[in-house]
Design a protein that fits this description.
This protein is of the alpha/beta class. It has 2 domains: 202 residues, inorganic pyrophosphatase (n-terminal core), CATH 3.90.1640; 119 residues, Diaminopimelate Epimerase, Chain A, domain 1, CATH 3.10.310. The chain is built from 12 helices and 11 strands. The strands form 2 sheets. Strands 6-7-8-9-11-10 form a 6-stranded mixed beta sheet, sandwiched between helices. Strands 2-1-3-4-5 form a 5-stranded parallel beta sheet, with helices on both faces. Helix 2 runs antiparallel to helix 6 and helix 5 runs antiparallel to helix 6. The longest helix is centred in the first third of the chain and has 17 residues. The chain binds manganese (II) ion. The site of manganese (II) ion has 6 residues, from loops.
Length: 329
């Protein structure tokens, strides 16, 4: 997106949110801290500004992010048509891909005029009448905070906490290559407004169930290295969930563990689900994993991407090892 178009879209979104009496916020399926934190923050800030705001999520809130929704849980997709029609605007955050909005594509297509998108992923569908897509932003939370500031909406401590959770989780707690002055400035201002990094870290990353650690243990034990130890592959099968009692939403960040090994350039995690295999891809610095993911119908960022496939897990694994080997050689 050109700089001028981006700033025009930013301005249009600010104006449309400012004049809306009500809006519905939604984020992607299998939501992460950025999507959820941004959704919770826009909801709280919009309500404080006198708007009627509802939230909707394809799927459930993972346990580690439940603290963001103590007052109210997001509605499910069965309520989409009703809530969408009651709202002046539909605000989609942290995705611009129909493939990530399970079960909502048709309903969204029919309501394109009232949809605005706030996202930082490079791969974008034509979902909304206005789309502010800034792939240089570390998190959708950074963008949402800039919108909230431009609107002059107040940010109380829980809102600051939600936005901080978004920025901190999408930057791997300010360790990933997307960590930049813009993200750090947002974080600094959010701490001034009452976000407590230590308390948030404890709630997100030090509140695991023993089952999650048992699953991590099994996953690490099964890790394989290829391409002179530059490619790390981990797989989680249904049997691993059954044996440990861990849930599918407890595998977040497992993919990053193999990057502790100094030689690993690309890390893969394949997770067998009931209806498909989900794959997470990470790259240390050189390989564009979003290009690899795109070959299998997925997408994301150069350093972090994902895809879903209906192939058997063994077939998918071999296909991905081949695709990564090609890039690494
Ligand atoms: Mn994000």
């Amino acid at each position: 997106m050109c700089e001028k178009c981006a700033s025009d879209n930013f301005q249009t979104i600010v104006e449309r949110l400012g004049s809306a009496g009500s809006f519905l916020v939604l984020t992607h399926a299998r939501p992460d801290g950025d999507g959820l934190g941004t959704m919770a923050a826009l909801t709280a800030a919009g309500r404080a500004a006198g708007k009627t705001v509802r939230m909707l999520l394809p799927g459930n809130v993972p346990a580690r992010y439940e603290f963001l929704f103590t007052d109210e849980k997001p509605a499910g997709t069965d309520e989409f048509a009703k809530l969408a029609d009651e709202s002046d605007l539909i605000v989609i955050v942290d995705t611009c891909a129909f493939a990530q909005l399970d079960g909502l594509a048709d309903g969204l297509r029919a309501r394109r005029d009232k949809i605005i998108v706030i996202d930082h992923h490079a791969t974008a569908d034509d979902i909304g009448s206005v789309q502010w897509i800034d792939s240089s932003a570390a998190a959708a939370g950074v963008m949402a905070y800039e919108i909230i500031e431009a609107l002059g909406w107040s940010v109380d401590a829980p809102t600051a906490e939600a936005l901080f959770s978004a920025v901190a989780s999408d930057t791997g707690w300010f360790r990933f290559s997307n960590t930049d002055p813009r993200a750090m400035k947002s974080a600094g201002k959010l701490i001034e407004r009452g976000a407590r990094p230590d308390a948030i870290y404890n709630r997100i990353y030090q509140s695991d169930r023993p089952e999650r650690l048992r699953l991590l243990q099994r996953t690490l034990a099964g890790m394989e290295l290829f391409c002179q130890d530059r490619l790390a592959v981990m797989t989680i099968r249904k049997l691993d969930f059954d044996t440990t009692g861990a849930r599918a939403d407890e595998t977040e960040n497992f993919v990053n563990e193999s990057l502790r090994i100094g030689t690993v350039e690309v890390a893969l995690l394949l997770v067998e689900q009931d209806d498909c295999v989900r794959v997470s891809l990470r790259s240390r610095s050189r390989i564009d994993v979003s290009a690899i993911a795109a070959r299998f119908g997925g997408g994301g960022h150069a350093r972090a991407a994902g895809l879903r496939t209906n192939e058997n897990i063994n077939t998918a694994k071999q296909q991905l090892i081949d695709a990564c080997t090609e890039k690494l050689n």
